[in-house]
Structures are given as structure tokens and as C-alpha cells.
Amino acid sequence: MKTYTASIQNTEDSIRRLMKQHYLAFNKKVLALQIVLCVGGLTIGMMSTYHIVVRMAFLFLGCWVLPFVAHPGREGARQLIKQLDGKLPSLSYTFYETRMLSVYEGKETVTLYSDVLLLNEDPLYFFLFLKDKSCFVVDKSTIRPKEEKAFREALSSACGLEWKKARGLFSMTLPDLMGRKK
After folding, report:
1. Domains of the chain and any CATH numbers
2. Which one, 21, 39, 65, 136, has least CB within 10 Å?
């Protein structure tokens, strides 16, 4: 693997994106339960022959669950941004053959690619989730040499993982929610 460098100057947007991806990656059973409650409540409320009061209660349940599906990710981002008190972290990375080096406030940390659990990306960032559920966020525009496709392929090969595109909750499939490969 060619040596690559990259960095991230976190913003409130990058933290929101990170927390959304973190929630979608590590809370699949909760998401599945919320979707089942939503769909089940709406279906029973609309299709059943129960008394109108019971049907309204199921409709309320289905509608009430829906706005809270992505709430924990948004709330986690809000709390983290508040906790950082405007001091949004900046990290730089160097990617080598078998490991990556991250530098935060002058402190260097070596991470082996075997510690990477999940590779995810959205249009602006790469997310490297580790086995301890922490994450490195890489700003795609900072990758040097500027070979995003080659970087993606090299990192995928080094980690032995395939990249997953960041998707919204409602574009997830049942295998995504169950944590299985298609």
C-alpha cells in the first residue's frame, strides 16, 4: 500500500454525521424494534377491525415512535458538541501498509488495520469504526496523494473489509438491520 496522509478539522456537521453513522452502525436491534413498533402500530391502527379507540391508540403508537428513530444519534451529537464547548478536535493521519498513525494535540497513536471493525463513508467523509466502537473520521478532500478511489481500495484491502455507503434509516434493508451481509 502506498503511504497516504489525511486529516480532519471537526465541525458541528462532521460530528453530527459521525454520531448518526455510529448510531446506525451499533444500534441495529434498537432500530429494528423501533421500526417494528412503528409499522406494526400503523398497520394495526389502519387495517384492524378493533374498536376505534384501540385503533387510534395503535396509530398513535406508530406515529409516536417514528420521530424518535434517529433521535439518539442527534442527541448524542448535541451532547458531544456541548461537551467540547467550541473546541472541536483536529486530527491528522498517516496510512501505512499495516497500520495507521493518528496525531491529536501532538500525541501519536498507532492503530492496526486488524482493529478496524467497519468501513463506512458518506459524500464528505470516511468513517473507520474500531472494535472498541471508537471511530476515526477522515475528510475526503484532505487525502494525499489525491487518489480517493485508490485510497478506498487500499484501505479496504488492508483491513480485509468492504466499504459501506452511509444510508438513511429508511433505505436500510432487513439484512442491514440484522447485521448480516446480503
Report:
1. 4-166 (2.30.29.30)
2. 39
